[in-house]
Specification:
This protein is mostly beta strands. The protein has one domain. It has no helices and three strands.
Protein backbone atom coordinates (compact mmCIF):
# COMPACT_ATOMS: atom_id res chain seq x y z
CA UNK A 1 0.00 0.00 0.00
CA UNK A 2 1.40 3.38 -1.02
CA UNK A 3 -0.55 5.63 1.37
CA UNK A 4 0.55 6.77 4.80
CA UNK A 5 -2.57 7.96 6.57
CA UNK A 6 -1.08 7.66 10.04
CA UNK A 7 0.08 11.29 10.09
CA UNK A 8 3.21 10.57 12.09
CA UNK A 9 6.48 12.05 10.91
CA UNK A 10 5.51 13.10 7.39
CA UNK A 11 6.69 16.19 5.53
CA UNK A 12 5.98 19.38 7.48
CA UNK A 13 3.15 21.64 6.38
CA UNK A 14 4.65 24.80 4.85
CA UNK A 15 2.07 26.91 6.71
CA UNK A 16 2.16 25.49 10.24
CA UNK A 17 5.01 22.90 10.35
CA UNK A 18 2.61 20.12 11.44
CA UNK A 19 3.64 16.76 9.95
CA UNK A 20 1.44 15.96 6.97
CA UNK A 21 0.33 12.55 5.79
CA UNK A 22 0.08 11.27 2.25
CA UNK A 23 -3.25 10.17 0.86
CA UNK A 24 -3.20 8.85 -2.70
CA UNK A 25 -1.16 11.55 -4.46
CA UNK A 26 -1.86 14.43 -2.07
CA UNK A 27 -0.09 15.70 1.03
CA UNK A 28 -2.70 16.47 3.68
CA UNK A 29 -2.22 18.70 6.72
CA UNK A 30 -4.54 17.84 9.63
CA UNK A 31 -5.21 21.57 10.12
CA UNK A 32 -5.26 22.89 6.53
CA UNK A 33 -6.45 19.92 4.48
CA UNK A 34 -4.82 19.13 1.14
CA UNK A 35 -1.73 21.29 0.81
CA UNK A 36 0.23 19.77 -2.08
CA UNK A 37 -0.16 17.36 -4.92
CA UNK A 38 2.56 14.77 -5.60
CA UNK A 39 3.10 16.37 -9.01
CA UNK A 40 4.45 19.53 -7.31
CA UNK A 41 8.09 18.88 -8.24
CA UNK A 42 9.68 21.42 -5.89
CA UNK A 43 9.32 18.92 -3.00
CA UNK A 44 11.58 16.34 -4.64
Amino acid sequence: MDDDASGDGGRPCPMCETPMYRRHCKYVCPQHGVVMDCSDNFWV
